[in-house]
Amino acid sequence: MPLRPPLERLIDAGIVAVIRADSGERLVDVARALLAGGVQAVEVTFTVPRAIAVLERVAHELGDEVLLGAGTVLDAETARAALLAGARFIVSPVLDVPVIELCRRYAAPVVPGALTPTEVLRAWQAGADIVKIFPADVGGAAYLRALRGPLPQVRLMPTGTVDLQNAADFLRAGACALGVGSCLVSPQAVAEGDLQAIQSRARQFVTLVQETRRALGTPAPCTSAAP
Fold first, then answer.
1. What is the C-alpha separation between 146 and 173, in angstroms, rounded?
2. E strands along 116-208, which residues?
3. Does domain 6-112+127-215 sit in CATH 3.40.1550.10?
4. Catalytic residues
5. How large is the C-alpha radius of gyration of the chain?
6. What does the alpha-carbon distance between residue 203 and residue 193 come to, in Å, rounded to a whole number?
7. How many whole angstroms separate alpha carbon 119 and alpha carbon 122?
8. Phi-psi sector, 32: left (phi>0), alpha (psi -120 to 50), beta
9. Where along the chain do its domains lie?
10. Which residue in 17, 42, 96, 121 is a FRET match for 63, CA 20 to 30 A apart?
11. pLDDT tens figures, 30-82
């Protein structure tokens, strides 16, 4: 059975696990633990030492089981290197148009960061597949809902202090997916190799997303939107 396109898989997954760590040694096992907990989309950030090597290892070990992304991508050169290393989508904390253009050239989903309405619209018009609202804790779910009012066509993914207490609020406000960092992949759990804790927390987030989407009657919101 052929795999669905990466963008469709990313939105259906509903959660992007953002991995930051002081070492890349355990990150293949961390990705496995996330998968075991039901989280299929994993973002390895370029703040991880030797991030390219980590991306290559995760891609080699897990293949298409995981939807592998690269995060904290600040320029087109890094985006290209990440895609060649096995990343299937690119995430940035900022709006850099050359990164978007590079990803469009390679048919890879791209998720640039933005905060203000002007930045969000600029990112969408430049070809973003999803716009990452970062840092999402600045305005919370109410701010994301306000953005959706005049910009209902834009897929939005809040990132930054998304946790089990506010995740459902973001989904109800119109988020098409959630970027979840330390609240899901605890740096302490990574450092201690506590894969069971990571798997358990992943299962909690997946259950919450599924139940919230079911209650909203939208199993995969925003899938039909197009930039």
1. 8
2. 131-133, 156-158, 178-180
3. no
4. 43, 132
5. 16
6. 18
7. 5
8. alpha
9. 6-112+127-215
10. 96
11. 999 999 999 999 999 999 999 999 999 999 999 999 999 999 999 999 999 99
